[in-house]
Amino acid sequence: xxxxxxxxxxxxxxxxxxxxxxxxxxxxKKGEFVALMGRSGSGKSTLLHQLGLLDSPTSGxxxxxxxxxxxxxxxxxxxxxxxxxxxxxxxxxxxxxLTALESVYLPLMLLGFNKxxxxxxxxxxxxxxxxxxxxxxxPKEMSGGEQQRVAIARALxxxxxILFADEPTANLDTESSVxxxxxxxxxxxxxxxxxIMVTHEPDDKKYVDRVIYLKxxxxxxx
Amino acid sequence: xxxxxxxxxxxxxxxxxNKGTLLMTILIMTLAYVNLVxxxxxxxxxxxxxxQQAIDYQYANIVIEPSPDDRYIDNKAMGMIKSIxxxxxxxxxxxxxxxxxxxxxxxxxxxxxxxxxLKSINPIDEKNVTKIHDAIIEGSYLEERDTNKILIxxxxxxxxxxxLEYLSLGVSVGDKINVTFANGIRRLYEVKGIFSTKSTAMxxxxxxxxxEMESVLKVRxxxxxxxxxxxxxxxxxxxxxxIRSLGFKKEDxxxxxxxxxxxxxxxxxxxxxxxxxxxxxxVVAGITIFIIIFVSVVNKRKQIxxxxxxxxxxxxxxxxxxxxxxxxxxVGIIIGAATILFIIRPYFLSNPLDFPxxxxxxxxxxxxxxxxxxxLMAAALIGGFFPAYRGAKESILTSLWG
Lengths: 222, 402
Hints:
The complex is a heterodimer. By secondary structure, chain A is α/β, with parallel strands linked by helices.
């Protein structure tokens, strides 16, 4: 198994505390393509944020590849995210001042690769996602589907253990959505990429190995 | 902290960011820098004008006065002083109090009268030491053989827009005035020249020749003070030691800066005002950069979230904003320095300002440039750091949600 979650709770404090996750337990195997589904407010994005080290749980334990990551320092979390995890967000989350190539090689720069290496790796992965002719385009010069493929290339360039995708097709038309989901499926099948994806499109179920349903912060079915 | 990536992001941010904002930011930095250098330089120019005025007309570089026990100094050693390398000249003065009267109609009525400082000069020696001869505004300078001629400042003569016009005699060149010396001797002199030095104190002085004064005081080869002019300002201490080694052991020897009195206080006040305005200018520049970077951080909250999500550390994110701030500061310094050195300074050198203390130009020194450079870069560093640190400290999700 690659992810093990034990008794995970997340409460957002405020005048009226909100229990977004209530005692969540789950296991994800290496090479699985898992969809987190549920209605709005069910806790699926909250769970993804905890698993992806973008947020800290109130209590419980998250073990990724044998390492308990909850008590990591900010610096350790940043390093772990850089080396082991990849993210694709609903709104692409590209930096407007970087070209497709620059966006993709940014994590490799942070990892300390030399210029020749990071340009070659970024170019190669952009070609794999079908953007070989868009290397030097800025986000504003690309379609939504193309931007999301740049985001996927950026998420994969460091060969992550797990790829987290938060409603990656929500802003795309049907055709582009299919391209992205097929790309995920292909990555999952060909290179055994573990993917955890939040979605609320019932049609997306056909691309994944398993669906985890959440309701009111509790897993309904795995 | 990944310095290379911070530079990469800062470079692209500047290169591909909004050009209008970039130009406006650089313009603000340039103006902030010009303000820092200009304020320091103009006050430096005023202080320099005050000092130069004192050196040119009042004290030269060094003043030798008799010891408290003596009335005069033997001026025979003047030749030896002139032989010290770097000494341009020396001039011996007798100083006496005088009551000067002017009877405009020679009828014994409405006599104007006043007390002014009276000094004697050797006109030739004096030319090497002060610039009184260049300050004549009416008539002419004294000559060595003059015995019944007097040179007076515009505050004594009146009629030339002095500050103490109401106390003046109202005389012109050619008029005759009576001078009563401290020993009671009274002589009639013809006004040969009137001078204006822009120093009210100096313009209240009158001069007669050394030869004439010696005949009044009945002394020879003595002096109440000896002024010594050196080639350059600064290094007076060395000359004082040299002068002492010539046998002036008991005499009171001072450099010009020690004799400044009120004007020294004014110089210090101008220096203080310059420092205060410099600090205010630096703080304003720092706040300006703070606001620019703060707005940039607010606009880039989501991007900060993305950078943190992909594994960039807080330090690298802060560094990339600080590098941008330092870039704005650096470009502001380069354009500002070029503006000062190639436009503003040449203009003021050609068109100095007419201040009461003298003609004032910009005194742009290496120290002013260095201090302004450091101040603006420090302002950029601090002004860039705090908003960036604040932005980078936010949680990833808060940043991502904007």
